[in-house]
Amino acid sequence: MQSMRILIVSQYYQPEPFRIGDLARWLAERGHEVSVLTGRPNYPAGRLYPDYGPIRPVREVIDGVPVHRVPLVPRGNGGALALAVNYLSFAVSGCCLGPLLLRGRFDAVLCYLVSPITAAFPGIMLGRLKRAALALWVQDLWPESVASAGKVDSPTLMRCLDRMVGFIYRRADAIWIPSQAFAPAVLRYGIAPSRLAHIPNTTEAFYQADDPPPPGRAGKLSILYAGNFGEAQGFETVLDAVERTPESSGVEWVFVGDGRRRAWLAAEIERRGLRQARLLDRVPPERMPALIGAADALLVPLRRAPVFALTIPSKLQSALASARPVLAVLEGEGARLVEVSGAGIVAPPGDATALAQAALRLAAMTPQERRRMGKAGRQYHDRHFARDLVYASIERHLGSIARQAR
To answer: Which of 178, 229, 281, 295 could bond 261 through an S-S bridge, CB–CB 3.0 to 4.6 Å?
Structure first.
């Protein structure tokens, strides 16, 4: 394929724990000239990372990719006002400073849109200025995800957000969705179906270890959750389930990560006296294989909400790739995927008893039975979500819209 000049716009980027950096590196290795416009790293703790000042723009090179960082207001405690200021600060900084930092023409602009969708505004403006094709990779549905988080209860504000989303979608040459169930929510804005494409998430190569799961023992089970401790994961249900699997059950729960609910999680584990639960600090990516290698199963939870029923959390692809059984607290698309793949056991969100029973059922299995589950998940991942498969599809789509724009 002919090489392209590609601009990636994302409010989050390495060293923050988002996978868009892996795609940027892959595209650069394929011979494309890739640049990134992003903000100062502050997710998930809400504080700027060390070595990143609050004001001056920063240019650095990560894995051979030039990364241009603009100032933003950190997300702080994650409250509604703090998040609104954080979101708007990146949108304003990106629009004001992006044209000064990024010189020359681009063939395509790719906006990676986890919340907030406002991160698309610098991409829209730069796409127009650079006469480049614009693709939106929509990871979170707005305004649905805002409503499900309960941070906005004003009907007037929700209508404004709805109009803003329509404005953003209608200015894209292509909109990519990670779940087919997202399609109706996007098409209702009058988007032509030809501009919509299903591009699922994938996972980094380090999740795809070739080592088999540990031998393990029937009646013993180590369950690992690694990621963000936020509202969306529904940890109230998870901790209720932990209480229903006492030490004598042989089930151990290991939580690794950071986020706005980490302090609450630590306090609850202490208050409830959950000796079968361990809470560890977030680890760098290179240490993930060791953590996964010590686990018998991986936990993928989301709380009950209409928008989450449409979602396939990207953590699920990682769990499938790791060849470990999945203990999924999901409904809708995510639950269907686990069941179709044969990769694990599903418990309904909000049902702590069902989750505890699912954990005990996994513990009662033989190591061979659990290994077969993990192998089934890995095979399903390799057929549908393999890294090179997904990234090659992105490359083709970017090439297609760039040619049309030219």
So the answer is: 229
pLDDT at 148 over 90: no
User: Which DSSP string corresponds to 122-133?
Assistant: HHHHHHHHTT-E
Look up the pTM and report it.
Answer: 0.89
Q: Phi, psi at residue 280, to the nearest 5°?
A: -115, 155
Please report, as a single letter, which amino acid is at residue 45: A
* pLDDT at residue 211 in the model: 55
Could you say which DSSP state residue 214 is in? Answer: P
Cβ pair 35, 101 in contact under 8 A: no
CA 164 to chain centre: 23
DSSP annotation of 296: S
Q: How far is CA 140 from CA 115, 131, 253, 307, 318, in A?
A: 6, 27, 28, 9, 18
**Could you give the maximum distance between any two Cα atoms of the chain, in Å?**
66
Alpha helices, H only, 222-282: 235-243, 262-272
What whole-number distance in Å separates Cα of residue 110 and Cα of residue 124? 10
Q: Residues 6 or more apart from 240 whose CB is under 8 A from it? A: 352, 355, 356
DSSP 47-90: SPPTT--SSS-EEEEETTEEEEEE-----TT--HHHHHHHHHHH
Task: Give CA–CA dist 206/10, Å, rounded.
Answer: 23
Unique residue bearing structure tokens 């703790």: 45
Question: For the chain, what percentages of helix, strand and coil (3-state, to nearest 5) are there?
Answer: 45, 20, 35
Residue 38 CA from chain centroid, whole number: 16
How confident is the model over 201-227, as pLDDT tens digits? 998 777 765 555 555 666 689 999 999
> What are the strands of the beta sheet with 277-281, ordered from one edge?
277-281, 251-258, 221-228, 297-301, 326-329, 344-347
| Alpha helices, H only, 198-326 | 235-243, 262-272, 288-293, 306-309, 314-321
Q: What is the pLDDT of residues 29-52, one digit of tens each?
A: 999 999 999 999 999 888 999 889
Task: Give the chain's domains with CATH numbers.
Answer: 5-202+387-405 (3.40.50.2000), 205-384 (3.40.50.2000)
Residue with tokens 């470990």: 324
Task: Calculate the CA dihedral of residues 9, 106, 60, 87 and round it to 10 degrees.
Answer: -20
Contact call for residues 365 and 336 (beta carbons, < 8 A): no
State how far the Cα of 302 lies from the Cα of 313, in Å rounded to an integer: 8
Res 149 pLDDT > 80: no
Letter for the amino acid at 70? V
